[in-house]
Amino acid sequence: MTAEPLSDRLRSTSWWFRSADGRQTLWQPPNPALSVWLVTVVLEWLNLSAAHASTVEGVGHGALVVWSLDEVVRGASPFRRILGAIVLAVQIAVLVHG
Predict the structure, then answer these.
(1) What is the pLDDT of residue 80?
(2) Mean pLDDT of 74-80
(3) How far is the C-alpha of 26 from the C-alpha of 87, rounded, in Å?
(4) For 11-41, what is each residue's pLDDT tens digit?
(5) Which long-range contacts (C-beta less than 8 Å, at least 24 apart) are formed by 16-20?
(6) Fewer CB atoms inside 10 Å of the end CB: C or N, the chain?
(7) Are 18 and 25 in contact (CB under 8 A)?
(8) Cβ distance 42 to 59 under 8 Å?
(9) pLDDT for the residue 37
(10) Cα separation of 12 and 76, whole Å?
(11) How far apart are CA 90 and CA 98, in angstroms?
């Protein structure tokens, strides 16, 4: 069995969105870091913790940094690794330009 040429893999939606074992990896249940981030989004949206808004925002940014680093390192598909890298770059830019 010969390996598929790189140019063919790059054009294949299956390669971008499936793990090495063939599972679709575009969407999966949230992991703990994303769950923390979602809680911070809800808290910010509901404005329930106005006195601690900067803390909630910081926890949200931290959760996204953790999630994105995990995706860059262990992402199940090329799409997930690239998405992690993009989110990480945006979070770094937000934190630097704060």
Answers:
(1) 86
(2) 83
(3) 15
(4) 566 666 666 666 666 566 778 999 999 999 9
(5) 16/77, 16/78, 16/79, 17/77, 17/79, 18/77, 19/76, 19/77, 20/76
(6) N
(7) yes
(8) no
(9) 95
(10) 16
(11) 11
| Closest C-alpha to 42, from 57, 30, 27 | 57
| H helices present in the chain, as ranges | 6-11, 13-17, 32-46, 53-74, 78-97
Non-local (6+) Cβ contacts of 54 within 8 A are: none
What's the half-sphere exposure (Cβ side, CA atoms, 13 Å) at 66?
A: 14
| Residues 24, 77: Cα–Cα separation, whole Å | 9
Q: Which residue has the higher pLDDT, 71 or 1?
A: 71
Predicted confidence at residue 7, as pLDDT, reads 58
d(CA 22, CA 25): 9
CA distance 55 to 14: 40
Amino acid, res. 86: I
